[in-house]
Write a structure and sequence with these properties.
Layout lengths: L3 E8 L5 E5 L7 E4 L4 E2 L3 E2 L6 H7 L1 E5 L5 E7 L2 E5 L8 E2 L1 E2 L5 E7 L4 E5 L1
Parallel strand pairs: 1-11, 10-12
Antiparallel strand pairs: 1-4, 1-5, 2-3, 2-6, 6-7, 7-8, 8-9, 11-12
């Protein structure tokens, strides 16, 4: 399977969003104020089990409400969860197929991906 790369992140929430890739937190982390756009590139990690989830997943934190959304790819889809590891997880709204460049849209209650 190919590489899925987030090339742009849009924060459509009313709070600061923190995005951290557990696999490489010093290199792959973004703080994004409400209404802002980031052009930081983050590759979506392959996650096939709980151990991969614990060490590789992208964690999106809503800093005021402390909600979290976890993002990864497995099989032929980009997946997410609001509670922790799920096998296989829910397919992300929008362009959920793996491989290619994406824009991540973060809203108050969900996330979606658009093809670039």
């Amino acid at each position: 399977m190919g590489i899925t790369s987030i090339k742009s992140i849009v924060n459509k929430t009313n709070e600061l969003i923190e995005i951290v890739k557990r696999e490489n937190p010093k290199e792959d982390s973004v703080s994004l104020p409400s209404g802002d756009i980031s052009n930081e590139e983050i590759w979506l990690p392959w996650v096939d089990n709980q151990q991969d989830f614990n060490t590789k997943t992208i964690e999106i934190t809503y800093t005021m409400s402390n909600k979290k959304i976890y993002l990864w790819q497995t099989g032929d889809k980009v997946r997410y969860s609001k509670t922790g590891y799920e096998n296989p997880g829910k397919a992300v709204i929008g362009a959920a197929q793996v491989d290619g460049d994406r824009k991540l849209i973060i809203e108050n209650d969900n996330i979606s991906l658009l093809k670039l």
